[in-house]
Every structure is written in structure tokens, then in C-alpha cells.
Amino acid sequence: GFGERKAKAERMFSLMDGFLKNDPFSLQKDILHHVEYTMARSRFSFDDYEAYQALAHSVRDRLIERWHDTHIYFKKTKSKRLYFLSLEFLMGRSLSNSVINLGIQDQYAEALNQLGFEFEVLAEQEGDASLGNGGLARFSACQMDSLATLDYPAWGYGLRYEYGLFRQIIVDGFQHEQPDYWLNFGNPWEIERIHVTYEVKFNGTVEEVDMNGEKVKVWIPGETVEAVAYDNPIPGYGTKNTINLRLWAAKPSNQFDLEAYNTGDYINSIVNRQNTEAISNVLYPDDRSHQGKEMRLKQQYFFVSASLQDIIRRFKEAHNNFDELPEQVALHLNDTHPSLSIAEIMRILVDEEHLGWSKAWNIVNKIFSFTTHTVVAEGLEKIPVDLLGSLLPRHLQILYEINSNFMEELKKKIGLDYNRLSRMSIIEEGAVKSIRMANLSIVCSHTVNGVSKVHSNTLKTKTFKDFYELWPEKFQYTTNGVTQRRWIVVSNPSLCALLSKWLGTEAWIRNADLLTGLRDHVDNTSFRHEWKMVKRLNKMRLAEYIETMSGVKVSLDAMFDVQVKRIHEYKRQLLNIFGIIHRYDCLKNMDKNDRRKVVPRVCIIGGKAAPGYEIAKKIIKLCHAVAEKVNNDADIGDLLKLVFIPDYNVSVAELVIPGADLSQHISTAGHEASGTGSMKFLMNGCLLLATADGSTVEIIEELGSDNLFLFGAKVEEVAELREKGGALKVPLQFARVLRMVRDGYFGDKDYFQSLCDTVEVGNDFYLLGSDFGSYLEAQAAADKAFVEPDKWIKMSILSAAASGRFSSDRTIREYAERTWKIDPCQCPF
Ligand code: 7GP
User: Fold this and answer.
1) Sheet harboring 427-428: ordered strands across?
2) Do both 640 and 704 map to the same domain?
3) Is 113 part of a structural domain of the chain?
4) Residue 779 needs a FRET pair 20 to 30 A away by CA distance; which of 364, 439, 713, 728 works?
5) In the annotation, is 413 catalytic?
6) Are residues 173 and 118 in the same domain?
7) Distances (CA, A) of 703 to 532, 663, 682, 696
8) 333 vs 7, which has greater pLDDT?
9) Ligand 1 contacts CB of residue 337 (under 6 A)
10) Are residues 636 and 689 in the same domain?
11) Quick one: DSSP state of residue 21?
């Protein structure tokens, strides 16, 4: 029987001498084992890629051990779990991060050396896991790292897209998109769970049937798809805890279409099966507008249904009363993308578990929390009622019922204020009737989170004002953060060593607040010298990369000025480019003597534009057009260079951020919900040139406004400026730059006209013109500071010293204590 088998297995395990060993010799043995038996390559001939794969498999074995024990321990302690539901995770590479978090970096380096390999070289073989678009998705990844490190009993759930975010290639200055078939060469970091599968149903009809004298609704679905689990272990740092990120892939169901087979339509029924697999094929590359695409809705429901079946199954294994659900389970909605969970869990509790509507509702009310990541109005998801009704007929009924109950309750509270009622309704009436996913999420969640203080105020006073007035206690903010493991330890090893040396401890890797200790050393000249050397080294790495990617040679003495993020009008890459044109124009009009006084700059821009976002694509083209002119102008030489770094992603960020002197976060105030790039730059001792937007406002609180270059309209001034419209004052320099572009100074005259129109007086929604003057002043202040190296280095050190509060460890602890109400649960070694 089972007991006997278990006893035998335990005996066997003890004979195996417990766990895998981590001394360099054992590591070598394991790597070679995987070369021979996993890769099936001869141990006498394998290349770097095969060595990387074998190495990764040996790391994976070690992850699996800890991951097993962690889950056994979570189960044993019956601690409340957090389920983090997100349609996007930008994990990047796993090798270095895993080895560092496992604490066996040095052993691996030595093991590989003895085999004649270098760890860093093999690490470069790994491709990025890019299952997300931008900030929201990378923030999810940082949160997973912190959840594991802080020992929280958490699971991540997502989709295993076969094509991640497109690869950006630049042809003739234009962006082209290429598929990212990232699984082509195998993925050693995932564990396929062929037995963890669930059926997900679509379409069909709802019928009312009589059950023990009661009328109940039964969904008779039309199509069935199978979800298969792929598990990705996420190791914590300095702990044994290794949590799970479970991603779902779609497979055709075994319940195949019998009729089709019987009628002999064999080929067509196979083709249909392939269509179902398409559900998890591709990540949508638009990070803000997802309106009403059928496949996107299918993806959302597929993800939600599989995850909830899995979660409920796990709950039922240990509990038999659904009243306990709120004490055992916290479900987090990462933006509105997973918000169909609400309807799905009501369906499970009412239709399948027969709890009755009001009992189910009382439970569901207590388990959801919701974070919203945008202030862009198009970012608020809507699903056409017709589409939802045909794909998920039962869910549509449930949504209507939730809404009608909510409307009744609301009428009692606010009376018959029809305007307000219709604004707050989950259903939007109008030409295309649709479901407002944000309203749904707010009504059904106990907490609504903004991602920074400013963002949360915008939510309360504008975006969700009506809801805030109804339920002020629901609205919270938890400022974003980033993990110092990835953004210092992995990506900037020399800074990491320097920090530990001068802080006298490595404890900052788990407790970023200790970074404030750097303030004690700012006046120490040898510390400052070492700090400068680290920056120089990282600039060297970056300069080499720039030369290989774009052929442009850059001077290490120049200020490296970086703006890397998705291309959006509100992020104002165009303001940056206009600033560069202005600088170029000034240089051209200077005499030789004056030119000698100018601080040389390397301007670096990188980021992807959504494939259908015309204006964003024109911004990329303009950047290349300006670069072409400036970089080849013999008058200018090293005084100004402009480079566009193609295919910006997590691993490129790891290289670019440590090498930056200055970075730009220049969104129109009130538009960047938080921003997390700024936090990574700050940690790496890079100075910020920024507007008082999103989390920058809180960075200023920590750092003091003297230690960064601040400019532009404040959040509260923006509305008034916009009202001025055509009467808005715009500096002459701005008009001049605009003229240059319009007149074809950088070529492609016709192509750039519509781009120029977007910033013409009267039409300049993002206020580039009115902020241009103060932008140039901030840039001049940066130039001035750069020629006083001591001052600059001090500001750089103080930046890193102020970054502790922006660790995702702080973010996660706040969420855990205030929102999710979960406790750490550390698996003993
Ligand atoms: C981003 C926000 O633009 C950024 O300000 C924030 O730091 C980040 O989320 C993490 O909270 N939003 C997205 O990436 C996004 O796709 C659409 O928003 C829902």
C-alpha cells in the first residue's frame, strides 16, 4: 500500500545521503551528468550553449529540492496563502539570480573554472523570459522575488505564452516586430506538470433545471480546452523558501469532438484542436489598451478558470467548509486583467458548490484585493457584453446579478442620482454595451491599491472619485519597489562588493534600509574614489555594448544620459529628443573656444513601441534621424552622441542601468502611476532628471530636492495649463526645434509632420512646449554639477543611500500586513 511505499522511499532517500551537495566537486559532477544524460552530448565535446543548459539543469535540481520542502511545509502549517494573479511576468534571465539566491555563486564559479568555463560567459547564453510588456510585468517579477525572500506562503499564477513580447529590430530607423519564440531551445527553468491539468470551458448555453424542487442554472458549455501547468521555482535569498510561479498552457482536450470523428471529418477535427492551442500562443503587445478582442478575453478566462480550479482544489484538500476561505486564501488582482475571477468564483460557489448567492457573496467579498497600474483612460478595460455573453453566457448572468445588487444597495445610500448611478454601474450602456472591469474589481475587492501616493490621490479625486466617496476605507496606496537582488547583486557585482565592504555587512541584501549607512561615508575620499571606479567600470561595459550594437564609439568621459522605458507620448521621449536637437543646434552655433567648455554627452534612448501605436513609432524614427545627423557631424565629435539601444528588455536593462550617470523620468505630471525604472537607477547611484510625478515625489522626500534635477509643471498645475490651450506660453527655442523638424532638417519631412502636430501650441496635450524651458534649465544644472566630480559623486552616493525605501521588500511587507493579512512561514533547513 501507500504507507509502505512511502516508508521505502524515505529509506531510499536517507541512503542517498539526503540532498545534493554544493561543493565545487559535486557541482562539476552534476554538470557533467547533465551534459551526458540530459543534453545527451558527449562529455568530450559540448559548446557554451550546451554547457549553459547542463549548468542550468544542475541549478534546477537544487531549486526543486527546496521548492518541494517549502510546499510540504506550507501544507503542514496550513498557513493562509496569497495567490498573485497576473497576466504578465517579465522574469528576464534566471541563472545568475537563482545561483545568487541559493547562495552558491562562488562554488559554481570555481566548479566551472575547473571545467574550463567562465560563469559570466555561460550566463550570457540565456535568453530572456519576456512574458510581459513593461512596468506592470517587471514589478510582478520583483514582487515574486520579495515574496520568496520574505518567506510568505505565496503562489504566482500566469500564462505560459509561447511567443513573449516581440523582438524589436530597427531597419532604416524604423521599428519592426519579430516573434520571440523563446521556447525554441528548451527552457530548463520550468517543470512540466503533465498531470496537473484542468478543463476550461467556453461558449454554449445556460439552462434552468429543477434540483430538489429548486430552480438552478446550469451552464452547458460548447467547447472544452485543457490547461496544463508549468511550474517555475522562485528561490528566496538567504532562506530555504522557494515558491512557485505556475503558468498555464493550452492543450486540446481529450474530450475530443466525437461527432466530427464519427462523421469522418478527421482532418478538420485535428485542425480545430490546433485552434484551441492558440489560446496561450501570444502575449498581447499593447500595454494599455485591450479593448474587446475575442482572443484576449479567451486568454483571460482560460487563465482565471485554471488558476481558480487549482486554488479551490488545494483549499478543499485541507478544509471542508467554505466559510474558512477568507482565512485561508487571499486573491490578488494585478490590474483588471484577471478580474473575471470574481464571476468565476461566484459561479463555482453557487452553481457547483451550491452555497447560495448571499452566502457565496459574503465570502467572495472578503478575499479579493486589487491594484491598478495606470492613469491612462484607455487603460481601463472594457469588454463588450455581446462578446462576453457568447463566450461565457453564465458569467454574464452573474455579472448582471452582481451589478443589480450593487445598484440596489447604492440607491439606498445615494438616492436616485441617475448620473452617478450610471457612472458607477459595472455595465456601461451606450452604442456598445460593455462591462467595466475596473468597476467590477472595485465593487468586489476589499482593498483598492494605487502604486504611489500621487497615483492614489488621482484615483480618489478623479478616476474613481464616486467609489472613493462611497467606500473611503477601501482605498489605499502601496508604493512600488524593485528587488535589490536583481538590480544590484545580479546586475552590478562591483557595486555590490563595494556596498558590502563599506557597510561592513551583506545584510543590506535582505534589508535595504541599511543602505542609508552609506551617508556616513560620503566625505571619505577613498570611498568616493572607489565609487567612481565602479561607475567607470560599468560605463566601460556599456560603451562596449553600444559599439557592438550601433557601431558608435563613445567617450567614457562624457556624461551617460539614459532614458529607457516603453515609448509613450506621456513619457515624453519626444521632449528628450527635442532637448538633444536644441543642444546640437547650440553647439553648431558656438565658436571653437566656447565648445571647449561644453560637457560632452552620450544620450541613450531605448524602448519598444506597441506595434499599432503610430506616434510612438515616429518618435523612434525621429530618434534615429537625429542620431544619424549628430553622430556624423565632424564639428561635434565627442561633444554629443545619440544612440538608440534596440530591443530593450530586462537583460539589456541590467547592463544599461549600472552604466548611467544621469537618467530621465520626465512624464507629464499626473500621468506616470509610479515608475519603477527610476528606483533601479537610484539604487545604482545614477542621478535623476525628473518631473514631480508618480513615485518621484516620494523619492524627493527621501533624497531631498537638492540631490536630483527637478523640473516641469506640478500635478496640480497641469489642468490649468491645458485650459490655456492656444494662449499657452512656449519658449522660442521650442518653436525653433519644432521648425527644424518640420522643415526636414533631419530628413523624412512629410513623415514627421503628424508627429509635430501633436506638440503644436493648442494641441500639446502633454505640455512639452510649456515644460521645455524648465527642462533645459534642469539639463544645464546637470551639466554644471557634472564638472564638479566631487559634488557629482556625493549626489550619486546619496542617491543609492536613499533607495532603501524603494525595495520591493518594503512593498511586499506592506501588502502582506495591511492588505493580504498573511504571515511569513519559513521552511526550516
Ligand atoms: C505601469 C505604470 O505605467 C508604471 O507607472 C508603474 O510603475 C508600473 O505599471 C508598475 O506599477 N503600467 C503598466 O505597465 C501597464 O501596463 C496598464 O498598465 C494596465
Assistant:
1) 382-384, 434-436, 427-428
2) yes
3) yes
4) 728
5) no
6) no
7) 20, 15, 10, 10
8) 333
9) no
10) yes
11) P
